[in-house]
Structures are given as structure tokens and as C-alpha cells.
Write a sequence for this structure.
């Protein structure tokens, strides 16, 4: 069965420590998340591990944000970051709080763009501003051509039409060798495939497997499926399994835990896999 994953994050992130005179601090954190745009629905799936400041971790982090029955958000990279200047915390930014604010702000406005479109652009602008402030005070705080944060937004309008947007904020080299923060916000439609970021394991398992281990794992997984299964149910289960394979094969302690998944379709939101800590 042909797969076209729209947006996949496999992120193992850590920024400069608070001891630096200027820069950004956040605990090291890993995320593996997928946004799969199918013909009549959008599937979001993610792991649940969160790493604490002391290096320990818990597997109870709901990385998928749902709002009412018409909007979903997921992000890669640390959820909360703090900007420091000369050893003093100046500003903090939480990606999920920002996304919620963007979506709720759009609800108060009479505009022609969708919730996902407005929220993705609002989120990217404010994320970019945060990192621009850091790059001014400490131009070398992070390597060039690095994805700082990535996010997927999906929404459903009153007629049931779906909208999906991908937002990416990254560092690049600007004029005169200076660090430049770029933002990219693009729509996603069914049938358009893209895998930004670390995509090795996810891509390995697409299209019936690109390696012998992937083919063997997929064959074994398919034996666990019900005899009679719709293509839609198959695709949703496969998205969940892609997260699990990435957790199992990446050998990264920063990702793990249960897989949570949510679907947005013309009727609203439903959870194919939802642990108690995701019941908000």
C-alpha cells in the first residue's frame, strides 16, 4: 500500500546551558511524531517520553494538542525554552502554549484563512522572533542549517473541509556571515510526501519497506492485523507502528513510552490510541 507521510519529526534536541552568558536553555528532549494526510482525514501520532533536567525521564507526556473538535497541533524539539542574557533569564517560550494562543486568537477573528493556516503562520513568526533575539546576543549559539523547531497544524472548518500546515523555523547563514533565522510555512495536501528532519527509520519502513529488516518487520506486523480491515484502519494502525518502530530501532533513550494517536476527519476528532494522560 503506497504511503505518503506528510510530516515526520525525529528530533533529539538540546540547547546551550544556562551557564552560558547568552543563549537558550531547555532540557534535552527527543520527539518522534508523524502527521499523515490521507484522502479524507489527518492522522497525528507521537511518542510520550519527556526527559527531565537530571537526565531521568517519564513516559506520560501527551505531545499531541487537541482543541475542541476541530484543531490539532504537534511539535518537535523542546516544548519550553528560556532565553538567557549574561546569565539572567530574560524570556521563556512554550511552543504548545503559543499554538493554543494562536488557534484561540483565530477563533475571535473574522478571516478567510483557516485555523491551521493562521495558527501556523502566527506560531512561526513568534518562534522566529524568539530565536532572532538569541542570535543577536549570541550568534554562535547553534550550528548553521539546523532545524530549531518544527510543527504540524490541522483544522476542520464548519463545512467539514480539512486544512493542514507545516511550520519550520531554522538557522541559516545570512549576509556577511551572520546567523539568520528563517521561517517556512507551507500547506499539505493528500498525496504530497515530505519527510523533513531525521527521516531515516520512518522512510525505511515506507512503501513496503526499504530494507530486509523493514520488510520482515512489516510482514510480521501484518500478521497481527484483523483478517478484514479497511484501508483507512490499516493506514491509521501503520502510522502508530511507524512511531513504535522508530522508538525500538533508534536506540535513543530520549524517545519512548506509549504511542498516542488522534485523527481529524470531517466529523471531528477521535483517538485511535489515547492514554489517560492525554485525556484533557
Amino acid at each position: 500500500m503506497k504511503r505518503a507521510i506528510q510530516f515526520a519529526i525525529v528530533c533529539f534536541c538540546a540547547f546551550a546551558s544556562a551557564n552560558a552568558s547568552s543563549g537558550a536553555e531547555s532540557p534535552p528532549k527527543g520527539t518522534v511524531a508523524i502527521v499523515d494526510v490521507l484522502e479524507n482525514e489527518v492522522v497525528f501520532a507521537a511518542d510520550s517520553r519527556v526527559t527531565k533536567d537530571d537526565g531521568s525521564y517519564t513516559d506520560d507526556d501527551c505531545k499531541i494538542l487537541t482543541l475542541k473538535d476541530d484543531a490539532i497541533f504537534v511539535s518537535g524539539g523542546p516544548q519550553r525554552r528560556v532565553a538567557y542574557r549574561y546569565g539572567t533569564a530574560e524570556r521563556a517560550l512554550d511552543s504548545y502554549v503559543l499554538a493554543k494562543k494562536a488557534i484561540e486568537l483565530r477563533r475571535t477573528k473574522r478571516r478567510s484563512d483557516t485555523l491551521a493556516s493562521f495558527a501556523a503562520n502566527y506560531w512561526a513568526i513568534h518562534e522566529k522572533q524568539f530565536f532572532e533575539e538569541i542570535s543577536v546576543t549570541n550568534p554562535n549559539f547553534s550550528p548553521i542549517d539546523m532545524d530549531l523547531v518544527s510543527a504540524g497544524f490541522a483544522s476542520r472548518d464548519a463545512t467539514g473541509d480539512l486544512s493542514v500546515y507545516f511550520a519550520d523555523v531554522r538557522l541559516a547563514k545570512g549576509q556577511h556571515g551572520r546567523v539568520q533565522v528563517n521561517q517556512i510555512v507551507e500547506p499539505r495536501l493528500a498525496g504530497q510526501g515530505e519527510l523533513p528532519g531525521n527521516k531515516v527509520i520512518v522512510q525505511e519502513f515506507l512503501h513496503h519497506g526499504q530494507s530486509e529488516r523493514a520488510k520482515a518487520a512489516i510482514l510480521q506486523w501484518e500478521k497481527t492485523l484483523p483478517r478484514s480491515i479497511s484501508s483507512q484502519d490499516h493506514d491509521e494502525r501503520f502510522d502508530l507502528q511507524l512511531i513504535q518502530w522508530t522508538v525500538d530501532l533508534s536506540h535513543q533513550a530520549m524517545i519512548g513510552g506509549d504511542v498516542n494517536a488522534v485523527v481529524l476527519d470531517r466529523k471531528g476528532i477521535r483517538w485511535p490510541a489515547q492514554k489517560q494522560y492525554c485525556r484533557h
The chain has one domain: 7-278. The first strand starts at residue 7 and ends at 13. The radius of gyration is 19 Å.
